[in-house]
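ok posting inputs for the NAP job
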Amino acid sequence: MSTLASQVAVVSGASRGIGRAIALKFAAAGANVVCLARTAENAEKTAAEIRALGRQAWSFGVDVADPGAINAVAEQILAAAGKVDILVNNAGVTKDTLLMRMTEADWDTVLNTNLRGAFLFTKAFTRAFLKQRSGRIINISSVIGLIGNAGQCNYAASKAGLIGFTKSVAKEFGSRGVTCNAIAPGFIETDMTAGLDEKLKEGLLRNIPLGTLGQPDDIAEAALYLAGPGGRYVTGQVLTVDGGMVM
Ligand code: NAP
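and the output
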């Protein structure tokens, strides 16, 4: 079903994992997709998969933690694609360690990538969204932003910050027909969680009622709902997709 026909979606962190799954899901639903990653080469891999589906795709390399780079790439995106209907702020990193060992660099890298990157990208497209009087912004938060986690105070702060950011943007942009929601994934099998040791995974699974880790496609389905016709009247929400881990 082409529920996103002729729409343009911009997805950060589209080279792998959840972002790649969202980019491909949106393309399968009819969208043309701008794929972002730290290097254009990595983003291009997903863009090529999207073109093979018969959609238009563009790839750009941008470090979302680099404030100097974002406005320029946003302008290039608007020049190439002509508009933006859907923005998915998905790029994210972890630098896990206990608070007493955490360096300022660990803190800054995670906050600047996960939270400031979303702020800067959303800001860069604000004029376009408000002028257009329609749009969907989807921020990829985390259950860790809801419940915290030992060894992840920087990550939890960034993901909780994204939730406050989401609700504020929803209130600011609502009157112009632009929605802003967050998705809070639980533990999803991607490169980000590949390093977790088996004992930890077993412990996690005991707390997941559905008894399995999630797949990137589970998050892509939630993003498609928020971006598609079904999400028309939904804004300022946090959609938790975690097999029941947090309730
Ligand atoms: P992943 O497999 O590690 O992929 C991360 C993506 O972000 C890659 O495409 C990477 O691109 C991009 N990226 C990282 N730093 C970047 C930067 N500074 N500038 C631009 N792009 C950057 O991670 P994932 O598991 O798919 O996670 C995606 C999002 O979901 C993240 O925000 C993460 O916090 C969130 N999340 C994940 C889980 C989970 O269990 N996996 C759970 C909750 C929330 P390149 O490396 O190619 O540049």
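notes: The beta strands are 8-11, 32-37, 57-61, 86-89, 135-140, 178-185, 238-241. The mean pLDDT is 97.
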